[in-house]
UniProtKB/TrEMBL annotation:
It comes from Moraxella lacunata. Substrate binds at S8, N9, N10, Q11, G12, K13, S72, F157, G158, Y159, D160, K180, H185, R186. Belongs to the HAM1 NTPase family. This is dITP/XTP pyrophosphatase. The keyword Transit peptide does not apply. Binds 1 Mg(2+) ion per subunit.
C-alpha cells in the first residue's frame, strides 16, 4: 500500500478525497497531515495553483513522502471573482463557514435584482513526488451554479448551503454524497488526477 500525504485538515475535504480514492481502488493510503503533526502551510500565493503547490510542497517536506494538496474556493463574477482564494477566510475567521456565508450574503445584497447571481466553485489539485519536485501533477475542476439568498440544506461544508444547482433544483448542501462527488469541482479534479494515477503515474513517484 503506497502512502500519500493529504495536505489538509478540513474534515469535509478529507471525507470526499477518501471516498473517491477508495472507489478508484488505487492501492494508495491517504494520510491526513494532521496525523503526523504537520501544521497548515502559509498560503502566500495569488492563485489557486500557487497555493495548492505551496501546501503540497510543505506537507511533503515535513513528511518525506509524496503529497497531494487541494486549493479551492468560490468565485462570484459580480464581486470581481471574490472570495476566490480567500474563500476559507473571507470573513476574517479562517474556516468559519457561518461567518463566511453571512459575509457573502451581505456583499451580494446590492446585486439582488431578480436575476440569478452566478457562482463558480473552483478546485486545483497539486501532487508532488517530493518537496522540490520540478513538475507537480496538476488537475483542475470547475462547477458553475447560482448563489442563493439564504442557506439551504444540512450536508456538505463551506459555501455548499448557498450554492444552487438549477438542473437539480437543489443546493450543494441538499445533495447526497454520491451525487455531489459526481458533479462537484473537487470530484472533477480528482477524476482527472485519478485517471493519471491509473496510468501508473504514482509508480514513478
Amino acid at each position: 500500500m503506497k502512502k500519500l500525504i493529504l495536505a489538509s485538515n478540513n474534515q469535509g475535504k478529507l471525507a470526499e478525497f477518501q471516498s473517491l480514492f477508495d472507489k478508484a481502488n488505487l492501492g494508495i493510503s491517504i494520510i491526513p497531515q494532521g496525523e503526523l503533526g504537520i501544521t497548515d502551510a502559509d498560503e502566500t500565493g495569488l492563485s489557486f495553483i500557487e497555493n495548492a503547490i505551496i501546501k503540497a510542497r510543505h506537507a511533503s517536506r515535513e513528511s518525506g513522502l509524496p503529497a497531494l494538496a487541494d486549493d479551492s474556493g468560490l468565485c462570484v463574477p459580480v464581486l470581481g471573482n471574490m472570495p476566490g482564494i480567500y474563500s476559507a477566510r473571507f470573513s476574517g475567521n479562517h474556516g468559519d463557514d457561518n461567518a463566511n456565508n453571512a459575509k457573502l450574503l451581505t456583499e451580494l445584497a446590492p446585486f439582488r435584482n431578480g436575476t440569478p447571481i452566478v457562482g463558480k466553485f473552483i478546485c486545483v489539485l497539486a501532487l508532488v513526488r517530493h518537496a522540490d519536485d520540478p513538475l507537480p501533477m496538476i488537475a483542475q475542476g470547475q462547477w458553475v451554479g447560482e448563489i442563493l439568498d439564504a442557506p439551504r440544506g444540512e450536508n456538505g461544508f463551506g459555501y455548499d448551503p448557498l450554492f444552487y444547482v438549477p438542473s437539480l433544483d437543489s443546493s450543494s448542501a441538499e445533495l447526497d454524497k454520491t451525487t455531489k462527488n459526481a458533479l462537484s469541482h473537487r470530484g472533477q479534479a480528482l477524476d482527472k488526477l485519478i485517471a493519471h494515477l491509473k496510468q501508473g503515474e504514482f509508480d514513478r513517484l
